[in-house]
């Protein structure tokens, strides 16, 4: 490395469309933090920020979106976090680049997880973009936007000014992509080669962009990590009228417009009080994108938009996801075959275990049978369906599964978020990734992400041949120390597994998710 740190009047200063911003150089990477890309009144569409004449100090992260409750610090071995001041003035982004020059590098725009309700662009320390920019020679951007009822509450029945309040958070992301289009070339990036990528809720936001007409032309490729799950539309596909009226009643306000000025803490408390009843009746509760003229809806329910069918998509999940926190990890190393079968029978019942066991052994021969109780049922079946339906419309849909045994508690299946540090080339920040050979797996995964960003094909010389998937053949790259390609390996297993696992998981959701330390 050359320059370790530098900041002076000539360093990392860029003229954007709104004025100059100044960051700093750290380990030869130019860093810019907290750049405002838009502004917005509560429940309204984002608007352009006013320009500035002084140089904007882009050396500190900006506010993150307010959450319903303060996060409880825990699980730092699994997913090291960063907690940050919250404010509704949160429409800002962070950018890392190897140089503010004319090289036109690929641009990676990260959409954070936390569903559509929580999280932030800097919540995970593994979201840091420095290493991705350095080792990939790309421009890395992470985006803060409105969440929960600030970003996803439909008030369209209460006036045209709220026409797309149900997707305000998505509109923020689109505004950030427009900022990238208009400015990233000055930071050494190529506005014609933008890859949107995200995990969990961030992966959901990626699929949401594909279904949002106003985002067309603002990105070229998409990566969806553990971001596809089965949803059902609310009863009668209703909008937010009843929910908003209940919220107004709870807060003793007479006009929807008054909700714009209610202190956020009161607004959030009132919403959390009335939400459970709406959930029980499968009524509209907000907190996720709203199907309307601006958003075509979940593609698994409403189909894919023709306009984005040819966007290359890399989609996948993690073997264990939340189920990695199910009981029984110790038995993975100590129990014999018969004892492991008994464990599966105790979990699923004898009849269901007998049906699942041979299918699991065929699909995952490298796993002990007791890992059957730790297999994910939330994301993998939905991702399979997504890949099957999308690949019928193109030849650029790719499938992967992260299935690396993690070095914690004597070895365990990978959990939700376990793949993020490998994607960002940031395993150095996560204690539970530290093991012999971590650099090899990190490079294999990172090189796939970079290959995809450059060409739309995630294959590279370090991997076996990796064809795109088709409806008949899901070609899944299994990422482990020795990656290998599986074709339709769990297609027969997953429908049956999902049917048997879902009621068990739902009945024990609170205990399992409490152990999901992230």
From TrEMBL:
Q: Name one Pfam family in it.
A: COesterase
Positions of the Carboxylesterase type B domain: 11-484
Keyword Hydrolase in record? yes
Keywords in alphabetical order, please.
Hydrolase
The EC category is hydrolase
Give its E.C. classification number. 3.1.1.-
> Is Hydrolase included in the keywords of this UniProt record?
yes
**InterPro entries membership:** AB_hydrolase_fold (IPR029058), CarbesteraseB (IPR002018), Carboxylesterase_B_AS (IPR019826), Type-B_Carboxylest/Lipase (IPR050309)
**Which GO terms label this protein's molecular function in UniProt?**
hydrolase activity
Family the entry assigns:
Belongs to the type-B carboxylesterase/lipase family.
* PANTHER family associated with the record: CARBOXYLESTERASE
Query: What is the name attached to this protein's record?
Result: Carboxylic ester hydrolase
């Amino acid at each position: 490395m050359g320059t370790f740190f530098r900041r002076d009047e000539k360093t990392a200063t860029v003229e954007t469309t709104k004025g100059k911003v100044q960051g700093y150089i750290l380990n030869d990477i130019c860093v810019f933090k907290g750049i405002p890309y838009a502004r917005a009144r509560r429940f309204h569409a984002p608007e352009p920020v006013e320009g500035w004449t002084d140089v904007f100090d882009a050396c500190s992260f900006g506010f993150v979106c307010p959450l319903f409750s303060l996060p409880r610090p825990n699980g730092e071995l699994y997913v090291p976090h960063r907690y940050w001041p919250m404010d509704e003035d949160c429409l800002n982004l962070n950018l890392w680049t190897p140089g503010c020059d004319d090289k036109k590098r690929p641009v990676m725009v990260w959409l954070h997880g936390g569903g559509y309700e929580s999280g932030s662009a800097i919540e995970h320390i593994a979201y840091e973009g420095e290493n991705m920019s350095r080792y990939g020679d790309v421009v890395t951007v992470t985006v803060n936007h409105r969440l929960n009822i600030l970003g996803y509450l439909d008030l369209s029945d209460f006036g045209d000014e709220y026409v797309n309040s149900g997707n305000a958070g998505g509109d923020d992301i689109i505004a950030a992509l427009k900022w990238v289009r208009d400015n990233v070339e000055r930071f050494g990036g190529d506005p014609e080669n933008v890859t949107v990528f995200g995990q969990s809720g961030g992966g959901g936001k990626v699929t949401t962009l594909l279904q949002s007409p106003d985002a067309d032309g603002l990105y070229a490729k998409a990566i969806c990590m553990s971001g596809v799950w089965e949803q059902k539309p609310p009863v009668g596909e209703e909008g937010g009228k009843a929910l908003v009226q209940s919220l107004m009643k709870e807060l003793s306000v007479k006009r929807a417009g008054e909700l714009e000025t209610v202190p956020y803490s009161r607004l959030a408390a009132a919403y959390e009080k009335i939400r459970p009843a709406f959930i029980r009746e499968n009524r509209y509760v907000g907190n996720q994108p709203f199907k309307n003229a601006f958003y075509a809806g979940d593609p698994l329910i409403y189909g894919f938009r023709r306009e984005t069918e040819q966007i290359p998509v890399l989609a996948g999940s993690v073997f264990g996801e939340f189920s990695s926190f199910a009981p029984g990890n110790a038995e993975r190393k100590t129990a014999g075959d018969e004892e492991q079968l008994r464990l599966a029978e105790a979990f699923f019942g004898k009849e269901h275990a007998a049906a699942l066991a041979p299918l699991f052994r065929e699909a995952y021969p490298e796993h002990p049978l007791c890992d059957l109780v730790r297999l994910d049922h939330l994301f993998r079946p939905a991702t399979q369906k997504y890949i099957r339906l999308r690949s019928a419309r193109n030849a650029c849909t790719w499938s992967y599964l992260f299935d690396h045994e993690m070095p914690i508690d004597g070895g365990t299946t990978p959990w939700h978020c376990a793949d993020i540090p490998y994607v960002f080339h940031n395993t150095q920040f996560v204690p539970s990734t530290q093991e012999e050979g971590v650099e090899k797996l990190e490079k294999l995964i990172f090189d796939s992400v970079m290959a995809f960003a450059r060409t739309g094909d995630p294959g590279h010389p370090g991997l076996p041949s990796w064809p795109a998937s088709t409806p008949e053949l899901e070609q899944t790259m299994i990422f482990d120390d020795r990656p290998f390609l599986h074709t339709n390996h769990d297609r027969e297993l997953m429908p049956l597994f999902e049917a048997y696992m879902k009621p068990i998981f739902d009945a024990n959701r609170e205990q399992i998710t409490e152990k999901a330390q992230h």
